[in-house]
Write a structure and sequence with these properties.
The complex is a heterodimer. By secondary structure, chain A is mainly α. Chain A contains 14 helices and three strands. Chain A has one domain. In chain A, helix 5 runs parallel beside helix 7. Chain B is elongated and about 150 Å long. Chain B starts with 6 loop residues before the first helix and ends with a helix. Classes of the chains: A mainly alpha, B alpha+beta.
C-alpha cells in the first residue's frame, strides 16, 4: 500500500532517464564537488551552492528527457531568435565583469546568454538540415555558416573568444555530421589558416597576449603566463598518485589562480595525480561513447545531428579545458564540464544530457 | 540538381563520420594522457622541485641584539619587540594616496611622513620601510582587517633599540641605525653578508659601533611555507638565531649622571678612569643628544637642530675634541725635566714675573711681580709660568716629546670606541710635516726656541684630547704603570653564560725613579691642599691630587664659530686633572669646560662632585639640585 505511490514516483522519475549516462555524469559531478571542496579551501558555502546548482540541473535534465524531440524542433527557431536578441541586449545593456560584457542582469540573477547559444546553435542547425533533409545543397551549408557566424561574432565581441570558438565548433560539428564535403572542409581550413595574418591585427590586445604567452609562458611569468606555469607545476608535482585530497600545496597556498573554475583540473591533477587523471578521462570517454551510441541509433536526421553535436560539445569542453591546463592549448575561458564551479554551465550540460536521453527514449517512436 | 537521397546510404555515411569523430576523440584523449604522463611521471621531480621552492621560503631569523649595562648591571641599551607599519614602495602604485588612506586607520604624524620621505630618499625601492613604529594593538587590529586594501603594506614585529637614559652617556653608548650602503660595504668586507640577512639595523657610533660584532649575534634561518602572496603560513624548520652578547661597561651610570649634572648647561668633557685597570668610569661629552632619535631614522627637523647647533652636541669631545692642556701640562713637564736630568726637585729659580728670551722677547707670568723663589713643588702648586718658560728653554723639544709620548700625549689611547683623534705632541719632525706645503717657506718649518716656551706651559702647538689628559694623569697616579683605557668591562656570551673580562694587564711602565714620582705627586696633592685647587677641595673627606689649567682658546679644529657667540666662545677653556685618594688612587680624571674661564673655578668643582660621589657614595645633593647648585658654586669660587 505504502510502496505503491513511492514506486510510482520512482518509476515516474526514472522514466526516459538513461542510467548509464546519468551514472557517469553523476560520477564526474561527484568528483567535481570533492575537488571543489579542496579548491575552495573547504568552503561549504561554495560546495553546497554547487550542489544546489546540480539539483536544479538534474531537474532541468529530467524535464528535457521527458520532452519528445519533436518539441525541440519546434523551439529551435524561437530559442535561437531569443538567444540572438539577448546577445544584442548584452551588447547594449550588459553587465561588465572582469573587463568583458557577458552577463545580462535580470533583477534577481544574472544570466549569460552566450551559454544558451551552446545548445541553441546546434539545435537550429539540426532543425534546418532536417528540414532540407531531402536535398541538402551547398547553399544550405552557406546559410548554416551565416547562422553560426552571427551569434559567434556577437559573443566574440563581448569579448569571449573561448565561448565563441566553442559555439563555432558545435555548429561545425552539425555541418560535419550533416555531410559537408571534405573538399570544402579542407579548403575552408586552409583559408582560415591563411586568414590568420589578416585577422591577427584585428584581435584584441589580450587575445594577442594569450596566444603569445601560450607559445612562451615565460614571456609574462607573473601575468598571463602565471596561470600556465603554476597550472603545469601543480599537475606535474602531483605525480602518479597525487599529493592527496586537500594536500595540494599549489592549491592551498594560493599559487593556482582560478582554481575553482577554469583551472580546477590543476587542483584535481595535483591532489589525485596521474591515476585520478586516467579515471577522469575514462569517465568522460564513457560519457562520450554513450553519447555516440545514442547518436548512432537516433532515428531522424534532426536527432542524429543534435545528439552528435551535444556529445561532441562534451568532448570539446573536456579536451580544451584539460589541454589548456596541461599547457598544450592556449588559455581560453573554458570550464571543465560537470566539474568547474558555475551554475549556468552545469545547467546547460545537463540540459544537453536530458536531450540525449529524450532522443534515446524516442529512437523508435519517431519515424519520418 | 536535386536527387532523392538513399536513407540507408545516408545513415552509413553518417555513421562513418561519427566513427571518425570517435577516432578523433580517442586520439585527443590519448594526447592528453600522453601529456599527463609527461608532466606527472617524466617531469614529476622537476615540477615537485618547483612546487617545493614555490612553497618553501628561507626566512632569516634576526637575533636579539645584546644588552648593554653599566658596571652595576643597570641597563643602558636594550631591545624590545614592537609592531611597525611597513611599506614597500615598489609594490605600491600610488604612495601618496596609500599613505593618505592608511592615516585613516593608523595615526601618521607629519613627522612620521617626513622621516619616511627621508628613508625613501636613502633606500632602494624594493626594501620595506617603516612608516609608523610602535603601533598599538588596536591599530594593528584595525590595519589587519583592511590589509587586503593595501598591497605592499605590512605590519611587522620588529626589534627596537631603546636607550633608557636618553642623553646620559650618549657619546659612549652611541646608537644603531638603518643599514646604509657604507654599512653594507663594511659588512661585505668582513664577510658577514649572510649573517646580516634580515637585519635592518647596525651600530653607527660609540659602543654600538665598535662592539657591533659582539652585539649583533648570529642570524638563524626559518624554513617557512609561504603562499603565493609571500606570506608565511607555516613553520617547517628553524635554526634559532643566537642572541648577541651582552656587554657590561666599566661605566658607572650614576657617577656618569652626577658628572653630567655637574656640568649644568656648560659645554665640555670629562673622562674618569680607574687608574689601576684603565676602566672608564665616566665619559662625558656635553651637550649630548638623545640616541633614541636615531634608531628609526632621525627626522630632518631634529637632525638639523643637532647638526647645526653651535654647541656641537654630536661632537664626541673627550675623543675628538683637541685642546691645549694649559697648566695641566706642568706636572708632566716637571716629570720630563726630572727624567732628562734638567732639574732636581730642590733646584729653585727666581721668578720676577716674566721670562726674557735671549732675543729680548718677554713671556709674562700670570702673577705680576712673580712668585719669588720657586722650586718644583711650588711651581706646580702655584702654577708658576716662569719656572716652565725657563725649563722649556733649556729642553730639547725632541727629547721632551720622547718622554711625554710615554704618557700617551699625541698618541691614540686605543680606547674601545672608534674615531679617536691623535692630537698633537709637537716636535721638529711634526712641525716640518705640518708646514710641508708649498705655501710655507723654510722658516715656517724650522723649530725655534720660542716654540719651546709656549709648549712648556701647555699652549702653542700642543693639542690633546681630554681622554689623553685623563690617561696621562691616571698614569701618574700609578707612578708610571700605563693601562689602555677601555669602556667595556666584560662580555657575556648569552648562549653559554660565560663571562669574558677585558684584559687589564698594563701596556707599559714609564721608567722613572720612585723619588721623581714622589716629588710630582706630592706637588699635585699640594695643589688641592694649598694651591689652585684648594678652594674646590676644601673639606673633602679624602686626600686628592690635582692640577688646574686654563687654556687660551684655539677654535676646535675645523670649527667655525657662530659670530653671535664670538665673545663667549673666545673665553678660555677651563681644565682640571686629578686623582684620588692620593695614596691609593681609585679614580683619575680630566675635566674640560669649554670657554669656562679659570680651571680652578669652572672645572675643579666638577671633579670635586665626581670624587665625592665616587669615594664617599653621596651625591652632592639630588641630581636636580646639583644642576641648580652649580652656578652658586661658581660664585663661591670666583676670586
Amino acid at each position: 500500500m505504502m510502496t505503491n505511490p513511492i514506486k510510482r514516483l520512482a518509476r515516474l522519475l526514472a522514466r526516459r532517464i538513461d542510467g548509464f549516462l546519468l551514472g557517469t555524469a553523476l560520477a564526474i559531478s561527484g568528483l567535481g564537488l570533492l575537488v571543489l571542496y579542496s579548491a575552495t579551501d573547504a568552503s561549504t558555502a561554495r560546495v553546497s551552492g554547487q550542489a544546489l546548482n546540480l539539483l536544479f540541473a538534474l531537474a532541468v535534465m529530467w524535464v528535457a528527457a521527458n520532452i519528445p524531440p519533436q518539441h525541440y524542433m519546434r523551439w529551435a527557431v524561437p530559442l535561437f531568435a531569443v538567444g540572438v536578441l539577448l546577445l544584442l541586449g548584452v551588447a547594449f545593456f550588459g553587465t561588465v565583469v572582469n573587463g568583458s560584457r557577458r552577463w545580462l542582469s535580470l533583477g534577481v540573477t544574472r544570466i549569460q546568454p552566450s551559454e544558451m547559444m551552446k545548445i541553441a546553435v546546434p539545435l537550429l542547425l539540426a532543425w534546418y538540415f532536417n528540414r532540407q533533409a531531402a536535398t541538402i545543397r551547398l547553399r544550405d551549408f552557406a546559410l548554416a555558416v551565416v547562422l553560426i557566424v552571427v551569434p559567434v561574432a556577437l559573443i566574440a565581441r563581448q569579448p569571449d573568444f573561448g565561448t565563441a570558438m566553442l559555439i563555432a565548433a558545435s555548429g561545425f560539428f552539425v555541418l560535419y555530421l550533416a555531410g559537408l564535403n571534405w573538399k570544402i572542409i579542407v579548403v575552408v581550413a586552409l583559408v582560415l589558416v591563411a586568414l590568420v595574418p589578416v585577422v591577427w591585427p584585428h584581435l584584441r590586445e589580450y587575445q594577442h597576449e594569450r596566444v603569445l604567452v601560450f607559445l612562451d609562458p615565460l614571456r609574462d611569468p607573473l601575468g598571463r603566463g602565471y596561470h600556465i606555469i603554476q597550472g603545469t607545476i601543480a599537475l606535474g608535482s602531483g605525480g602518479v598518485l597525487g599529493k592527496g585530497w586537500m594536500n595540494g600545496t599549489q592549491t592551498h597556498l594560493d599559487f593556482l589562480p582560478e582554481r575553482h573554475t577554469d583551472f580546477i583540473f590543476a587542483v584535481y591533477g595535483e591532489e589525485f595525480g596521474l591515476l585520478g587523471g586516467i579515471i577522469l578521462l575514462a569517465l568522460y570517454l564513457m560519457l562520450i561513447a554513450r553519447g555516440f551510441v545514442i547518436t548512432a541509433s537516433a532515428s531522424t536526421l534532426f536527432t542524429r545531428l543534435l545528439a552528435g553535436a551535444i556529445t561532441l560539445m562534451f568532448f570539446t569542453y573536456a579536451f580544451v579545458n584539460m589541454g589548456m591546463v596541461s599547457g598544450i592549448l592556449p588559455v581560453v575561458g573554458v570550464p571543465l564540464p560537470l566539474v568547474s564551479y558555475g551554475g549556468t554551465a552545469l545547467v546547460t550540460l545537463f540540459l544537453g544530457l536530458g536531450m540525449l536521453m529524450s532522443i534515446h527514449a524516442n529512437r523508435k517512436l519517431v519515424k519520418t | 540538381m536535386s536527387e532523392l537521397k538513399n536513407p540507408e546510404r545516408e545513415l552509413y555515411l553518417f555513421r562513418r563520420r561519427l566513427a571518425l569523430a570517435g577516432g578523433v576523440v580517442v586520439f585527443a584523449f590519448l594526447v592528453l594522457l600522453g601529456r599527463f604522463v609527461f608532466l606527472q611521471v617524466v617531469m614529476q621531480s622537476h615540477y615537485a622541485t618547483l612546487a617545493e621552492s614555490n612553497r618553501i621560503s628561507l626566512v632569516p631569523a634576526v637575533p636579539n641584539r645584546g644588552v648593554i649595562t653599566d658596571r652595576n648591571g643597570i641597563v643602558l641599551a636594550q631591545s624590545y619587540s614592537a609592531y611597525t607599519l611597513e611599506v614597500t614602495p615598489s609594490k605600491v602604485e600610488n604612495l601618496e594616496e596609500t599613505i593618505e588612506q592608511l592615516s585613516a586607520l593608523v595615526e601618521i604624524t607629519p613627522r612620521d611622513r617626513k622621516r619616511f620621505r627621508k628613508l625613501l630618499d636613502e633606500s632602494k625601492n624594493f626594501e620595506s620601510m617603516p612608516l609608523r613604529t610602535r603601533l598599538t594593538d588596536e591599530e594593528v587590529a584595525r590595519f589587519a582587517v583592511n590589509r587586503y586594501r593595501f598591497p605592499g603594506v605590512e605590519v611587522k614585529a620588529r626589534l627596537f633599540r631603546q636607550y633608557p637614559f636618553g642623553e646620559v652617556a650618549s657619546h659612549v653608548i652611541g646608537y644603531i641605525g638603518r643599514i646604509n650602503d657604507d654599512d653594507l660595504e663594511r659588512i661585505d668586507s668582513r664577510d658577514e653578508t649572510a649573517n646580516y640577512k634580515g637585519s635592518d639595523y647596525i651600530g653607527k657610533v660609540g659602543i654600538e659601533l665598535s662592539y657591533e660584532s659582539e652585539l649583533h649575534g648570529t642570524t638563524g634561518i626559518e624554513e617557512v611555507e609561504v603562499d603565493a602572496g609571500g606570506r608565511a603560513v607555516r613553520l617547517v624548520s628553524r635554526t634559532p638565531p643566537i642572541s648577541g652578547n651582552n656587554l657590561q661597561l666599566a661605566l658607572d651610570i650614576e657617577l656618569q649622571q652626577v658628572a653630567e649634572d655637574a656640568f649644568g648647561d656648560k659645554r665640555g668633557a670629562l673622562v674618569a678612569l680607574d687608574p689601576s685597570t684603565g676602566e672608564v668610569l665616566a665619559f662625558v661629552s656635553k651637550p649630548g643628544y638623545d640616541p633614541n632619535l636615531f634608531v628609526e631614522g632621525i627626522d630632518p627637523q631634529n637632525w638639523d637642530a643637532l647638526n647645526n647647533s653651535p654647541d656641537k652636541p654630536l661632537l664626541n669631545r673627550p675623543l675628538r675634541g683637541t685642546y691645549p692642556p694649559g697648566s695641566t701640562f706642568k706636572p708632566f713637564m716637571a716629570l720630563a725635566a726630572l727624567a732628562l736630568g734638567k732639574r732636581t726637585a730642590q733646584q729653585t729659580i727666581n721668578d720676577p714675573g716674566f721670562f726674557a728670551l735671549a732675543g729680548g722677547h718677554r713671556f709674562n707670568d700670570d702673577k705680576k711681580g712673580g712668585h719669588g723663589r720657586v722650586d718644583m713643588y711650588k711651581s706646580i702648586v702655584v702654577s708658576c709660568d716662569t719656572y716652565y718658560y725657563q725649563l722649556a728653554s733649556e729642553l730639547d723639544i725632541d727629547d721632551l716629546a720622547g718622554v711625554l709620548k710615554q704618557f700617551g700625549f699625541g698618541q691614540k689611547s686605543g680606547i674601545d670606541i672608534e674615531g679617536e683623534l691623535t692630537g698633537v705632541l709637537p716636535n721638529r719632525d711634526w712641525k716640518r710635516q705640518r708646514f710641508a706645503g708649498k705655501q710655507f717657506r723654510e722658516e715656517h718649518r724650522k723649530w725655534y726656541l720660542g716654540d719651546n716656551i709656549s709648549v712648556g706651559i701647555g699652549q702653542g702647538y700642543n693639542a690633546y684630547t681630554p681622554l689623553q689628559l685623563a690617561h696621562a694623569i691616571a698614569t701618574v697616579a700609578t707612578s708610571g704603570v700605563s693601562y689602555k683605557p677601555h669602556l667595556v668591562k666584560s662580555i657575556q656570551n648569552t648562549r653559554t653564560g660565560n663571562v669574558t673580562s677585558i684584559d687589564t694587564t698594563p701596556t707599559h711602565t714609564i721608567p722613572l725613579k720612585p723619588e721623581h714620582w714622589e716629588t710630582v705627586k706630592n706637588a699635585l696633592v699640594g695643589v688641592n691642599k694649598e694651591g689652585t685647587g684648594a678652594r674646590a677641595f676644601a673639606g673633602a673627606a679624602y686626600v686628592s691630587a690635582g692640577k688646574t689649567g686654563t687654556a687660551q682658546v684655539f677654535s676646535l679644529r675645523g670649527d667655525k664659530y657662530d659670530s653671535r657667540h664670538v665673545g663667549e666662545r673666545f673665553r678660555d677653556h677651563a681644565l682640571f686633572i686629578a686623582y684620588a685618594p692620593a695614596e691609593q688612587p681609585k679614580i683619575a680624571l680630566a675635566v674640560l669646560v669649554e670657554n669656562g674661564g679659570f680651571g680652578a673655578q669652572a672645572a675643579a668643582p666638577i671633579a670635586r662632585q665626581v670624587f665625592d660621589y665616587f669615594l664617599t657614595g653621596k651625591k652632592a645633593k639630588t641630581a636636580t639640585t646639583a644642576t641648580t647648585a652649580a652656578p652658586a658654586n661658581d660664585d663661591d669660587e670666583s676670586d
